[in-house]
Design a protein that fits this description.
single chain, 4-stranded antiparallel beta sheet, 175 residues, alpha+beta, 5 helices
């Protein structure tokens, strides 16, 4: 498998729209986080994401981050998104972690999330970040496996104070 983490670009806009449509059908649109805003055109999305990367016009509780699309290079298909946060505070430290990824339903169980996390770990290391926090819900066995395959070490679990019916697991990856 050959994937690339790419910045949103017009060439792959239709593929991203396919990802959005699958997320809507699966009732997972909220899982896209900052990658999607209803009724936002492509140009506005690119500007918003570039600003977010620079920490411009973000909510006070938010943190700067870089959003990537996960591209299957061989097939030319956008299979998911990945949000890379350089510094975590507040909710990001308590429940969200340094990185979040989403793989569209039709592309799951193919190793994309594992490979995308592996690729972003290289970016963290090249930016001088040697330890990252990755979180997932306890019932998300697939995400636990992705984290473990990337040398994640379990730290703890606790109730999600924003969604008490879920337990958040915290994992650390040392680079």
């Amino acid at each position: 498998m050959n994937i690339q983490l790419i910045h949103p670009q017009p060439k792959w806009q239709d593929g991203f729209n396919d990802l959005i449509n699958e997320a809507k059908i699966a009732n997972e649109i909220l899982e896209l986080g900052h990658a999607y805003r209803p009724n936002e055109d492509f140009s506005s999305m690119c500007i918003r994401l570039e600003n977010r990367k620079q920490g411009i016009n973000i909510h006070p509780r938010d943190v700067p981050s870089c959003l990537f699309w996960i591209l299957d290079v061989k097939r030319g298909v956008i299979v998911g998104t990945l949000d890379m946060r350089y510094k975590i505070t507040g909710d990001y430290f308590k429940r969200l972690g340094h990185v979040a990824y989403y793989i569209k339903p039709s592309e799951r169980k193919k190793g994309y999330a594992t490979q995308a996390l592996k690729e972003v770990l290289k970016l963290y290391k090249s930016n001088g970040i040697n330890k990252i926090l990755v979180t997932c819900y306890k019932d998300n066995i697939a995400s636990q496996k992705v984290i473990q395959k990337n040398a994640g070490k379990f730290e703890s679990e606790k109730e999600d104070f924003k969604n008490p019916s879920h337990i958040i697991q915290r994992w650390w990856i040392v680079l």
